[in-house]
Each structure stands twice: as C-alpha cells, then as structure tokens.
Design a protein that fits this description.
The protein is mainly β and 349 residues long. It has a single domain, classed as AttH-like fold (Beta Barrel). It has one helix and 25 strands.
Length: 349
C-alpha cells in the first residue's frame, strides 16, 4: 500500500521565506528528459536568496535554466536576477513571477539569456494523481531548525509537454517524464550529492515504467565549525508502491560512497533491501555557482543525463528474492556540490 504522506502546516510548494527574515535560500525546480532521444533534457529553477547581512545586499530572485544536449556535450545554461521587491510571491502554493518568468502549480513560462544563448520555455505538466515524496521521515524535520536544509518533491513522476528553445532551435515536448521539487533553508549544505530519476526501464530490456522513481541524497551537515559524517537517505516508488529508506537510525549509512562523478549506496529497511548507483562523465555536467546567504560561493556540478541503476530485493523466509532491477540511461538528475577543483567541468553561470 502507498505510504501516507506527511502533512505539513503549510500547503505543498508554498513560499517558506518571510520577507523580514535574513539568511534564507529557497528553490523550486523542474526537470524533464526526452524518452525518445536520450541525452536531451531540461532543468529550470526559481530561487530566492536573502543575504544574512542586510547592510550589504538586498534579497534577490533568480531564474536558472539549462538545456542538456548529450550529442557532443553541447549544453547551454543561463540565469537572470531580479530584486525581490519587484517580484510576485504567492501566499499559498507555488505562485511566482520573477521578471517575465512565471511558475505556477502546473505550468511555467519564461526566458533567460540573449541572442543565440537565449533559453525560453512554455511548459505544462500533470498534477492529477501525484503523491509527494518527502526526503525526511518526520514532520518536525520540516518545521524545526534541524536539519538546516529541507527538501521534498511535490510531483515526482509527472509528464511535461510544451516547448523549449535555444536561440532559433525549438524542441517540442510530448510527454517527457519529469518532476517538480522544492527545497529551502538557512544555507546550502556544505557538501552533498543528490539524484532523482523517474524514467526507468527494466535492465533486461522493455518499456518505460510508469509510477516509478528514485530520489536520494548523501550530505554532510554543518554543526558549528565541524561537518557531520555523510548522512544518507532515499525514497523509492516501484510500480506505485512507496518505500522509504530514510529512517533516522539509517541516516548514518557506511555503505554510501559519494565519489567524484559517481555515487552508490545500499540500504535495508524491514523486508526490503536497496542498491543504487549513479554516474556521469565530466562532459555530462554543467558547472553553476551557488551563493550562500553568508556570501560563500559553492560550485554545483549539475547533470540531468546521468546513468543509474536501481536494484531491489524482498525478504522471503531466510532469503532475498529479486523484486526489481531497473536502469536509467541518460535519464537521471545528478548533482554534486563543492567538489574540490580542478574537476574538469566548466562553470557556465
């Protein structure tokens, strides 16, 4: 049976930032992958950034976009920045207007950049039947100070349609598998790896699977001047059944291996066992500069065309019976924050 969702005090995707609060970063992000032409993908993000020191900077609203084209690594990224005072922030649900860019519960339009580098989009997606995915297991983790960064996905297995343009070239989207996510907090995690895939096929071959996704993270959290060991969690939906591998006692997972351009983990909960691997070549990433509210620059390596594999077993009697063996070929979102240079990925924005 599907796991009942957490019930937060505020509606999904509502703005968590209070305009009087200093030291806050919050983002809503879309991604989608071409099911016919692997390697083509998009990523769009709306971000609020409120600096910690009001005397030096004013809050800003940013719009980011990347068009991934895996045919030779011809990826393009763009960004626009606006004063929050000139933007519209809805009070219930996602309702954002940053400059000429709009994000609503089921559609987004906008453009960033100029000339041949201008990325423009007009996208719609399905919200009917979507069950949110929560990265943390307990409501208090979303409503109290710890952890400093919160994350969940309101539309983990949606389908996008519309257009995405780069200069004079336009892609038409007809049912591209995708997602809409939301995160917020006092700062970026100093170190993290994150992945999400909603476009799987059986490893042995076959059609794309519906209502199936993986989302997980490994992160080091700041405790004063120190960083915790890697904390790891994951949630999986396989053919409509939700499985959570993010319980509190399992966050300290010694099997997690966050590497330079690859990440793997194994986890067990109850009668289920999970193995996950994801990897991407340096040319499949785009480098982005994220700034903390305190002004520190973070280098985020962002790919939406990574390869991944998900293996799942179920306990029966004294043994483990294979339940799923799934592959995402150039269809997985994979992000690495603060990988020490030189890492070979150009910083585009």
């Amino acid at each position: 049976m599907p796991r009942p969702p957490l019930r937060l005090a505020r509606p999904l995707d509502s703005v968590r930032w209070n305009r009087d609060r200093r030291g806050h970063v919050e983002s809503w992000f879309l991604k989608a992958n071409d099911p016919v032409d692997p390697g083509r993908a998009l990523w769009i993000k709306f971000t609020l950034l409120a600096p910690r020191e009001p005397s030096t900077e004013v809050p800003v609203a940013e719009v980011w976009a990347i068009r991934f084209d895996g045919r030779g690594g011809h990826h393009r990224a763009g960004k626009s920045t606006h004063a929050v005072a000139e933007c519209t922030l809805g009070e219930s649900g996602v309702d954002l207007t940053f400059g000429g860019c709009v994000l609503r519960p089921d559609h987004s339009t906008g453009a960033v950049g100029e000339g041949d580098g201008r990325i423009a989009w007009d996208l719609r997606w399905d919200r009917a039947g979507q069950r949110a995915s929560f990265g943390f297991p307990a409501r208090w983790m979303y409503e109290r100070a710890f952890p400093k960064s919160k994350t969940y996905t309101s539309c983990p297995t949606t389908s996008l349609r519309g257009t995405l343009s780069l200069g004079d070239e336009t892609w038409a989207l007809h049912g591209w598998p995708g997602m809409l996510g939301h995160n917020w907090g006092r700062t970026h995690n100093p170190r993290y790896q994150w992945a999400q895939c909603s476009m799987f096929r059986p490893t042995a071959g076959g059609d794309l699977l519906e209502d199936t996704f993986f989302e997980g993270f490994s992160a080091r959290v700041a405790l004063g001047p120190l960083l915790t060991p890697w904390l790891t969690g994951a949630v999986v939906r396989v053919r409509g059944e939700d499985l959570a591998f993010n319980h509190l006692l399992g966050l300290f997972n010694p099997s997690a291996r966050p590497g330079r351009f690859a990440w793997s983990l194994e986890s067990r909960r109850g009668r289920r066992r999970l193995r996950w691997t994801v990897a991407a070549a340096p040319e499949d990433f785009v480098g982005l500069r994220y700034f903390d509210p305190g002004g520190r620059e973070n280098q985020c390596l962002n790919s939406k065309i990574a390869d991944c594999r998900l293996e799942l077993w179920k306990r029966e009697g004294r043994g483990w019976v294979p339940e799923a063996d799934l592959t995402g070929s150039q269809s997985c979102a994979y992000e690495v924050l603060n990988l020490a240079p030189p890492h070979g990925v150009s910083m585009q924005v």
